[in-house]
Amino acid sequence: MSGGPATGHAVIDKSEIETLIQGLWKSGYTVVGPTIAQSAIVIDEIKSAADLPIGWTDLQEGGSYRLKKRDDQAYFGYAVGPHSWKKYLFPARLTLYTIKKNAAELEIIAPDPAPRYAFLGVRGCDLRAIEVQDRTFLQGAYVDPHYKARREQALVIAVNCAQAASTCFCTSMGTGPRARGGYDLALTEFADRFLVEVGSERGQGVLASLASRPAVQADLVLADNQARATAESMTRTLDVSDMPGLFYENLDHPRWDQVAERCLSCTNCTMVCPTCFCHSVDDVPDLAGETSQRVRVWDSCFNPEFSHVAGGNTRPQIRERYRQWLTHKLASWVDQFGVSGCVGCGRCITWCPVGIDLTEETAAIRGRLEA
Amino acid sequence: MTATAREVSGAAGDPYLPRVFEVRSIEPQAPQVATFTLAATDSSRDLPFAFQPGQFNMIYLPGLGEVAISISGDPDGREGLKHTIRFIGRVTEALSRLEPGSLLGVRGPYGAPWPLDQAAGRDVLLVAGGLGMAPLRPVVKALLHEPSRYGRLSLVYGGRQPIDLLFAAEFAGWRDQGLQLCPIVDRAGPGWRGEVGVAPALVHQIKLEPANTLVMTCGPEIMMHYTIAEVLAKGVPGQNIFLSLERNMQCAVGLCGHCQLGPEFLCIDGPVFPYPRVARYLGVAHF
Fold first, then answer.
1. Residue B136's domain spans which residues?
2. Confidence (pLDDT) at A230
3. In Å, how far is B32's CA from the nearest CA of chain A?
4. Fewer Cβ atoms within 10 Å of its own Cβ: the N or the C terminal residue of chain A?
């Protein structure tokens, strides 16, 4: 059995990643993927395989992120960094339109067409995060045409995680460590080759442009073992039973006061969260006041003015803002979109400057920790 | 692509894009409050602006931004598109400096309306506070077009001072058409012969058949809180009580996240809610 062919799968040499990247650029894609900047693995344009963090890994804990050299030359030997793919599907700053005041009319100028992205290295948690944002921007009462244009064109190449950070808890959220659909191709990295799973016709077309050979059952077994080992190495868990009721029944829990003493309301958790979608639209006029751009920018429920109304701010204290964020993420999100707003990526834990851990806060609300 | 107003309305697939409207008239209502009548500049200019009482528009001033403003005109459309606006923020203060002929952007109408479809054959009690009268005026107009379809029609309307009461010039006409109108002010002035106090305190005086009464209230949350307590005490079932809530609204299309109250997006799920749907959240301070 271990020598038999595995349909829907193929094997490529590691050097084929370069062929893949160059081919995607030639096909008109802007290729984005993991790369190192400012001592972190971020997501940015990838011009060649040399831009990937080959031979690097990350050490993550609550409030801490460090890069470290690996003993090998793994291409994808790290967990998720501060960026997520919403950087491209739902950009942090996006001009929605420009308005020009002419003598007797207002002229509205549409933005440039959306770029066509190829995402290289999307992890299981982030595949789910994209699906979660699809529900917000594509499946509600109104469709966001800017997200839609980016999303429909995007090619998604997933990578199955071979290791977990200490902040990861995708197994609790049912999102990883293995890609569970929503990709065009999914890669599993071995020491000397990649196993490629085809997830779409478009992915099949991309695979056809690479030098590949058939996969055998042994490759699949190896991939299964790798996924199982990654899952078993995960140390954090989040009990998502009784959601959303747990939070609605505990809106006055003393833990909200306690966490407010630590939370800086800095907005980091919402910026790094791959599903947070809150935004403002600002007017950016030129100095003459003749044209003005309507610019959509990420906002955060941790900003005091987020809840501003004529009578004051609805949530004036950090206690209320943290409660809003966590209650939305884990509870009301389920009511609104039929799915949790948390994918278990752990970014909000790593990038919280004081290391607040939503899994711990939830356990405390549940009454399993000393408040 | 450039677009004049006509082409913009063709881009209706983008919920962020406004249509261009012109200010037709500005009618002072009260100190720092005026009613703006707007008209489309595109090919739909001769059609009435279709909306349901309780809905709102996003009003856009280029260079400044957008504000959510409820529609205060008659839903039959004959008055034109009306917004009654208090000049209290950056955008609304700039609106106060506009003149007839000025252009602005309009997106809408948005939001869940008042339940006029449930009003036939029932007593209807409206309780408004301050600017909360603006989204209830379309209800008054709609009810008074066919008062015989309903039971007793009552409006309790509270303001700070007599001069703050909006649409006061219309009160006599509304009464003539069959509305029991009870204005009440926090502070009386010269010539005021009406009630002094807070709106909820008048509710117990209103004659109605509780089990067959529909209540609609809009005003400061604290006023609505006590109004609801009063009408519940009279025996009006909770599901017959509707309230219009206010939160920060920026996109009006359920995407920007600002107006959330628990699972509700006020802009698309509200702003008008049946009381039982939001009761559990309204009791939580700063939620």
1. 116-244
2. 97
3. 14
4. N
CA distance A227 to A237: 17
* Segment holding A202, helix H or strand E: helix A201-208
Question: Is residue B285 in some structural domain?
Answer: no
A105-114, A255-264, B76-85, B182-191: range with lowest mean pLDDT: A105-114
Residue A286: name the closest of B90, B17, B103, B63 by CA.
Answer: B63
CA–CA separation, A146 vs A96, rounded Å?
8
> Residue for token digits 């009548």?
B37
Reduced to 3 states, what is the DSSP secondary structure of residue B261? strand
Residues counted in chain A: 371
ipTM of the complex: 0.92
Chain B residues within an 8 Å CB radius of A289:
63
**How distant is the Cα of B226 from the closest Cα of chain A, in angstroms?**
18
- A201 in any annotated domain: yes
Q: Which residue has the higher pLDDT, B45 or B159?
A: B159
Residue A86: predicted pLDDT: 98
Q: What digits encode the pLDDT tens for the residues A337-364?
A: 999 999 999 999 999 999 999 999 999 9
Q: How many domains does chain A have?
A: 2
Residue B280 lies in a domain: no
Please determine, for residue A309, whether its predicted confidence score (pLDDT) is greater than 90.
Answer: no
Torsion angles phi and psi, residue B260, rounded to 5: -70, 140
Res. A4 pLDDT band, cuts 50 70 90: low
Q: What is the largest CA-CA distance in chain A?
A: 77
Answer yes or no: do A47 and A79 share one domain: yes
pLDDT bucket at A369, cuts 50 / 70 / 90: low
Residue A64's pLDDT is what?
Answer: 97
Residue A97, chain B, CB below 8 Å: the answer is yes
Tell me the three-class secondary structure of A75-122, residue by residue. Answer: CCCCCCCCCCCHHHHCCCEEEEEEEEECCCCEEEECCCCCCCEEEEEE
| CA neighbor of A58 nearest in space, from A31, A33, A34 | A34
Give start and end residues of each alpha helix (H) in B17-150: 90-95, 137-145
Based on the fold, state whether residues A135 and A85 are members of the same structural domain: yes
Q: Which domain holds residue A29?
A: 5-90+112-232
- In this prediction, residue B5 carries a pLDDT of 36
Considering the domain boundaries, does residue B276 fall inside one?
A: no
Residue A327 lies in a domain: yes
Q: Is there a single domain that holds both residue B122 and residue B141? A: yes
B106 near A CB under 8 A: no
> Average of pLDDT values for B24-30?
96
pLDDT of residue B237: 98
User: What is the 3 state secondary structure string of A50-72?
Assistant: HHCCCCEEEEEECCEEEEEECCC
